[in-house]
Amino acid sequence: MKKIMVVDNEPDIVDLTRTVLEIGGYNVVPIYSGEECLRKLEKEKVDLVLLDIMMPGMSGWDVFNRIKKKNSDIKVAFMSVLEISDKRKQFLLDEGLAGYIMKPFDKDTLLERVDNILKE
């Protein structure tokens, strides 16, 4: 069973995402801050990190950069309400981002995007 870390400072988003992913057959690690994410990754191997961009303290951008510096094998995808330009998205993909999921999302879209990211 693939393990996915869901990182968002909004507990409702984490709970909703976790429920959808567990229905889809994934094991989910709920995380509520960038700092907690980095600490947990020191001890636990995951197949994918779903990461909110806008969080207090350490932003998703910072967390992504730190993950990629330490372990470029970990797949990271952003989940965000922020629209980013195609140029910025392409830059992030070139830097190792595995995907970009716009919030709000529906159950089927989330599962389809996660399935595709994990197949790549």
Would you give an account of this structure?
This protein is α/β, with parallel strands linked by helices and 120 residues long. The chain has one domain (3-113): Rossmann fold. The chain is built from 5 helices and 5 strands. The protein has helices at 11-23, 34-43, 60-70, 86-94, 107-119; strands spanning 3-7, 27-31, 48-52, 75-80, 97-102. It has a 5-stranded parallel sheet, with helices on both faces. Strand 3 (48-52), helix 3 (60-70) and strand 4 (75-80) form a beta-alpha-beta unit. The longest helix is centred in the N-terminal third of the chain and has 13 residues, at 11-23. It is globular and about 30 Å long. The two termini are 16 Å apart. 28% of the residues are buried. The mean pLDDT is 94.
Series of secondary-structure elements, N-terminal to C-terminal: EHEHEHEHEH
Give the domain tally. Answer: 1
Biggest β-sheet description: 5 strands, parallel
Strand order of the largest sheet: 2-1-3-4-5
Architecture, according to CATH?
3-Layer(aba) Sandwich
CATH superfamily: Response regulator
- The total of helices stands at 5
Share of residues in strands: 15-25%
Shape: globular
Rg on CA atoms, Å: 13 Å
Helix content: 40-55%
Mean pLDDT: 94
Q: Find the count of extended strands (DSSP E, 2+ residues).
A: 5
CATH fold group = Rossmann fold
CATH class: Alpha Beta
- For the terminal residues, how far apart are their CA atoms? 16 Å
